[in-house]
Amino acid sequence: MTTRVALVTGGSRGIGAAIVGQLARDGYDVAFSYARNEKAALETVEQLKSTGRKIVPVQADGGSVAGNKHVIAETVKIFGRLDVLVCNAGIYPYGPIDEMSVEQIEQVLNLNVRSVMVETSEAVKHMTKGSRLIYIGSAFGARAPFPGVSLYAATKAALRGFAQGVARDLGPRGITANVVEPGPIDTDLNPATGESARLISSFTATGSYGTVQDIADMVSYLASPKAGYITGAALPVDGGLEA
Ligand code: NDP
C-alpha cells in the first residue's frame, strides 16, 4: 500500500512536534518545517526513529511567501506526494493594539494567516481525493476573553472563515478543511506554571492545562479516513474553556 505523506508547519517543538510524532505512529511519512531551532528539529527526528517512518525537517521562514512555497515544494520533491497539510506554526503577540507597531501587526498576519493561505493554495495543487487540510487555530478564534489578545484572536478567527470557504471549494474534490481550536496547552508559548497559568486553568471545566498529545490526537482523527464527513468545522480541544 502507498504510504501517505503529511506536512506539519512548526513541527520542531510544542504542539507541532507532538503532531509529527502521532502522524508518524499512525503510519505517515512526515515533513515538518521549523524557523530557527535546528537542534530541536533534529531531536524531534531522533526521538521518532523507532517509528520506522521517514521524517524530514525543512528549514523555512513561515512569515515569508518564499518560505511558504518552499516548504510545500520540498515536501513534494522529497516524497512525491502530499496528503495531509497541518498548518500549526504561529506566534502569540500580547498587548493592547495601540502598543503594537505596524511591523508587529504585519509579522503576525504573515505567519498566522497569510502562510495558511499560501501553503493551502500551493498544497492543493498536489492533493487528491481523501486529502486533508488541518489548521491549528485557538479558543480565542471564537472569542477574545482577555485584554491584550485582539490581534492574536483576529488571526485565529480568520482561520474559521478560511476553512469554511476552502471546505466549500474543495468538497467536490473529496478534500476536507477544518480548524482545531486548542485551549491552554503546556508549551514554550504558554507554560503551565506561575500565577497566570493558575488563573487560566480556573477558566476551564477541567481546571487544568491540556497536553500537546490532546491536540495531536484530534489531528490524528481528522487526518484519518474516519473523518471524511467533517469539513468546514472548528473543533474545540480546550477543557471546556469558558471566558
Ligand atoms: P511553540 O512556540 O511551542 O512552537 C512554535 C513552533 O512554530 C516551533 O516549531 C517554531 O519553530 C515554529 N515557528 C515559529 N515561528 C516560525 C516561523 N516564522 N516559521 C516557521 N515556523 C515557525 O508554540 P505552540 O506549540 O504552543 O503553538 C503551536 C500552535 O498552536 C500555534 O499556532 C499557536 O497559536 C497554537 N495554540 C497554542 C496554544 C497553547 O496554549 N500553547 C493555545 C491555542 C493555540 P522553531 O523551533 O524553529 O522556533
From TrEMBL:
Cross-referenced PROSITE patterns: ADH_SHORT
One Pfam family of this chain: adh_short_C2
Keyword Cell cycle: no
Keywords: Oxidoreductase
Transmembrane segments: none
Family annotation (Gene3D superfamilies): NAD(P)-binding Rossmann-like Domain
Keyword Oxidoreductase attributed: yes
Domain Ketoreductase: 4-183
InterPro entries: KR_dom, NAD(P)-bd_dom_sf, Sc_DH/Rdtase_CS, SDR_fam
CDD domains cross-referenced by the UniProt entry: SDR_c
Family according to the record: Belongs to the short-chain dehydrogenases/reductases (SDR) family.
Name by which UniProt lists this protein: SDR family oxidoreductase
